[in-house]
Amino acid sequence: MVRVFHILLTSLTIVACLQPVISAEKRPNIVFLLADDMNRDSWGVYGNKDCKTPNIDRLAKEGLTFDWAYCSVAMCAPFRQELYSGRSPWRTRTLANHSKSTVDTKSIPHYLKPLGYRVALAGKSHIGPPQVYPFELLGKKGGHSNKDFVASASQFFDDCSKAGKPFCLFIASHDGHAPFTTGDPSQYNKDDVSIPPYWLDTPVLREKLVQYYAEVSNFDKLVGQIRAALEQRSLWDNTLFVVCSEQGVQFPFAKWTCYDNALHTGLVMSWPGVIKEGSHADALISIADMTPTFVDAAGGELKAGDVDGKSFLKTLQGEQQVLHEYVYGAFTNCNIINNRDRIFPIRSIRSKDFALIYNPNHKKITSNVTLDGKGSAAASWQALQGSSDRADRLIRKLKHRPEFEFYHLAEDPYELNNAINQPKYESIIAGMKKALFEKLEALGDPDPIATERSLVKVGGNKGGKINHPGPIHLNQP
């Protein structure tokens, strides 16, 4: 009997020792390709007929397309810190651009490294401080070309494979961010591209749109190259592969606003054997949901309060999930080039059907370098002043916003007709206002004007320290 017991105990010990190794082998690698200021509707999968994105479109056919993914702030630093931390920009104190998270913030390296992952970042950072985002940094400084990314990623893949370690790699391209200098504009004819109804057609816009499309296509080429590097190493089948457009482009009514073009992010994923080919995710997703999803997919567990987002792993596995009734957005005008001291906060609340935008400082104007800059697309619109009612409305909308804007997205997907005063929406508007103001109260942001004043950097256009660097209090429900 004693001998049988010892044999059983030895067997259980061997199984216990082997279990972590077996689990580690099943953990997926994670590769996340992030564009920079790229409209989701620049991709073919989201309906663009002009811009060439064959690799992203192929990924969508073989994987999962997210139809309702949103960020909280349409600016680079807030977006990336929400992505990597899984926490809202209110909590990390990153509502303003070029801001850094509070020192108590934790991020995805803190959660995946204890699970045996190497967690690395190649390309654009725009995050901080380093102890909050302790990524392994790949590549040489300034090495942001496709060639540089492929080289550093390939070496990283080889090193991880040799060591038998799972990996999580974020590749942050500059493609999409103005000025537009990468890719081949000659593949597009500026006279042939279609102009979306939310922009005014001018020669300057067409010229810049062609340059921008060249960058989108260059990013798409990178998607194909990184995929090929994984396939060549037999890593593709065990990799959760993600491509994200970030926030909207640096043209009017996209980046630096709370319109759909600003906050609605393009998101496509592939995970062979897990994600169903050609599927669509109907759930309302926040960028803060990324980190908890990746940790969940890696077999980790987060403690209550670690993140504000929610895991959508079940969505990846083909199940129906309802994560959010609403997603919330914010814009902070201060600390942006040309208007570092201007106070014009914007807050928004969205469902899949309706959008409510709140402009508390509506008697003033909003502005930034893309609206005021010489030679910008917006500046070229001024020549159309008085040419039509539509032109006059869009030109005025560049800098002047009413206190509230409301859009029925099924009827007005481009958010061109403010329906705030239509009686048929009265109860919906009242409900969304109530939800928005309750959320702002819970986030410690009941007065967005006061919040933005606290974020203005001392020193005006020269920048400097934020007036009140402490965190906005967050009371999560």
List the helices and strands and how they pair.
Layout: H1 2-26, E1 29-34, H2 54-62, E2 64-66, E3 69-70, H3 76-85, H4 89-92, H5 108-112, E4 118-123, E5 136-138, H6 146-163, E6 167-172, H7 203-232, E7 239-244, H8 260-263, E8 267-270, E9 279-281, E10 285-286, H9 290-297, H10 313-316, E11 327-331, E12 346-350, E13 354-358, H11 369-372, H12 377-380, H13 389-399, E14 404-408, H14 426-442, H15 448-455
Parallel strand pairs: 1-6, 1-7, 2-9, 3-10, 4-5, 4-6
Antiparallel strand pairs: 2-8, 7-8, 11-12, 12-13, 13-14
Helix pairs in contact: 6-7
Round the Cα radius of gyration to an integer and report it: 23 Å
Oligomer description: single chain
Biggest beta-sheet profile: 8 strands, mixed
CATH class of the largest domain: Alpha Beta
Helix content: 25-40%
CATH topology category name of the largest domain:
Alkaline Phosphatase, subunit A
Report how far apart the termini are: 56 Å
SSE arrangement, N to C: HEHEEHHHEEHEHEHEEEHHEEEHHHEHH
CATH architecture of the largest domain: 3-Layer(aba) Sandwich
Mean pLDDT, as a whole number?
Answer: 90
Number of helices: 15
Strand order of the largest sheet: 5-4-6-1-7-8-2-9
Poorly predicted runs of 5 or more residues:
1-23, 458-477
What's the gist of this structure?
The protein is an alpha/beta fold and 477 residues long. Helix content is 34%, strand content 13%.
